Each structure stands twice: as structure tokens, then as C-alpha cells.
Task: structure prediction
Amino acid sequence: MMNKKLGSERVKRGMAQMQKGGVIMDVVNAEQAKVAEAAGAVAVMALERVPSDIRAAGGVARMADPTIVEAVMKAVTIPVMAKARIGHIAEARLLEAMGVDYIDESEVLTPADDEYHLLKSEYTVPFVCGCRDLGEALRRIGEGASMLRTKGEPGTGNIVEAVRHMRKVQAQIHHVMGLKNDELMVYARDLGAPYELIKQVKELGKLPVVNFAAGGVATPADAALMMSLGADGIFVGSGIFKSEHPERFARAIVQSTTHYEDYEMIVKLSKGLGVPMKGIEMSHLHTEDRMQDRSR
Amino acid sequence: MRKKIGVLALQGAVSEHIDQIKKLGGNAIEVKIPEDLSTIHGLIIPGGESTAISRLIQEIYLYDPIREFAKNHPVFGTCAGLILCGSSITDGGKKLKSLHLIDIAVTRNGFGRQIDSFEVDLDIKNIGKNIPSVFIRAPYIASVGKDVNVLAEFDKKIVMAEQGNILVCSFHPELTNDDHVMRYFMNKISV
Result:
């Protein structure tokens, strides 16, 4: 008995499997992290600003100040995630050196590389990435992502894009399952996805990694909607701490994610929550402000 | 009659356990509310986040029903499940409420953060040698009461133990294709 292996694919993907059925919340300081943990969050995402504030501030959004990430790591015992800019090798290595539990290579930050993503298989720390369709999902897995999430449209409080992305991925998985083996290569070509991973999707009948919903979740009902569409769990960005009563929203969203088919319970959870975050209608969003289109 | 095993399905690695039970010919259901306990012969508390699962157990009033169930049925806790089945937590953590099913003190995140998570082949008493074991932000058992039987250690830390009906391990047998540990638990169940 020996040969201890660190950072294996199984260890990295397994960490995301342990988060299933749970809610991961964006936080910007230790106080918010404690609120999230007490409400039953399975992890927190430490960042400098939540996505809706990133939108409002404009300019270049970068990795958070390490002081914030470290303060959050100190404040809670649940896993701490943090965001690095797409393709920013140094930001990712810094976060790894700090010992964060998961890195989100995220389109919420301004991309550092508009062509290439990180080669995530080379890191000991696991990565989560966003996707809008199966091709994008499998390209990220091919680069070594251990977890996926829909991109949705972050910071809008509008669930429509997350729904679109979740449905698209699911529909394409079903399409693969209906294909004959000699048709897989051409479909892989059309999606721009690695052939081996298309084969794997057909064998498994699902993605080889966990896929959460993200980008627009603002209410307990939004969380339940995404779970019923087949999400493995939920990321909430601005939806908690931009609402009127963060504690109430956090607790209600956690419970409605677990009991997503118990509608009587979700009715009770939705009562008297106060005002959710203010949302943005998609047609009012300028093309250049769409975060989901920042990478492919 | 087929053995019917419930997997506590509040959060965590639920489907992985259900798949393994089914492969071994058992019947498996998700346990989400107290009523679900009435039809099963054994319960698994899976890996996940122990603070989140503890919170959800209390919100749905499953704390006392699980303790009652464990008096005369086998219960298996993996990772977060081990933490919940234990009787105390060494970091003093008030963040979760232990179920006191087995007389052990638990150290959470005992091997470090995610970056320190690992796989290793483990020798387990009564079960076998070189069992592939996946440790993810895993806890270890810091001390055991006199009636607890230690089944495995790694790095001089106790990582698997049993006491009567209750079986716990720090690692994740459900993430591997090796079914020795699940078989061992299913053998504890009588129908």
C-alpha cells in the first residue's frame, strides 16, 4: 500500500462531484463568506466585485486582490474558489500557490488571451469553466477542466441565457446518444470537439464531469428551474448579496436547490424574501457587454 | 427480498452510491425527507460538504429520525458522512451538529486543502489489500472509543472504522470501480 497520487483527474473531478446538489455563492469579503457558509453553501467564490458591480464599474476586471481571497479562506471551512482571467497563466498559478480549492477560468473577468484557454490538465488545482454548448464544454474538458457551468449572462439576474445554454448542452448530448458510431467523427468536427470525448459522451450518456448552472440565478425558483433542467448544482453570483435580505435569499436558494421538486416547500421558502437583485432585460444589453461571448 | 438502501440525497455524491448499489444487485432510493426512511434496510450518508448537509438535515427535521433509524439498521458514512456520524469534531466546529452514531472524534480537512487531496491503494482489515481509495479534503479519525473497531489507517491516521451497525470511512469508494467496501456494507444489512 503506497504510491500516493496528488492532483489526479479522479481527485480533481471528484471534488466537483462532492459539490453536487449544492449552491456556490459569490462573496467579496469574510463577512459575506460566513453568511454563505451558515446558509449551507457548499463553497464560496472569492472575488473583488460581484458580476453586476463589474458591469457597473466597467474597465478591466482582473483576479481579486490576494488579501480578499486569503481573508475568505481564513473565515470559512468550506472550499474557496477564485476567478482567474481566461488564458492568464500567472493569475492561475498565483491562485494555485495561495492554495485555493478551485479556480474558475472565467469570462466574468476581462480575458487575458482572446485565443487560447489555460492548459488546465497541467495544474494540481482543479478548474471550472463556462460553456454555452457541447462543443465548448468538451473543448474545456479537453484542456483539463474538471467541472463545467453554463455561462448564462452573469450579473443580469436574468435566467434566460442559463436556460438556453443548459438546454443546448442537454439536447446535443441526446443527439450524440442517437448517433451511430460511424457518425461520431463528423459530429465531433461540426462541434469542434475532441473525438475521444464525443465517444465518451455516447458511452456515458452524459458529460464526464459535473455541470452546474450559472449566470442569472436570482430567486429560489430560478435555482429549482435549473435543477429540473438537469443542472448538477447552482452558482449564484450577484443574486445573494445584491438582494434585499442576503441571509434569507441564501438559505432559501440552498433549500430549493435540494428540494427542487417540492413546490409547496419552495412556495414557503419564497415568501417574504424581500426584493431580489434588480435584473437586466437581454435586449437592453449592448453586444459588447455580453460576457458570454468573450470566449469560445 | 432485495436489499433496499437509501442514500441521503440532500447534497453530495448521491448518484455514484446509487449506481454502485445497483451494480451489486441492490435496490437504491434517494432519501430527502423523514418518510423515506420507513421503506429502507440501510442508509448511506455520502460525501459532500458536511456543514451544508448538516444544515439541510436540520432544516428538513431528519436529525432525530436518522438517529432512531440507526438504532437497528446499518448506516455507512463516507467522508462528510463520516464527520456527521461521529460524536465530536476536534476543531470545536459549532458549524455542524454531529449525529453521535459512532464513538469517534473527527478532524475535518485533516489532510489539507483540495490541493493536497490524493488517491492511494489502502489495506483494509476484513475487506482486502490494495483497495483504491480517493481522499478529497478528507477528514480523519483523531480518536476512537473502546467499542470501535479500527479498519484502516493511512499516514498513521485512522481512516476507516466500525462500531456495531455503523461503518465510516474518510475516503470515497463510490468514486472507483472497486466494490469491496460497498459489498462489505451491504453484507451488514439483513432483510
Notes: The mean pLDDT of chain A is 96. Residues 103 and 271 of chain A are 35 Å apart (CA to CA).
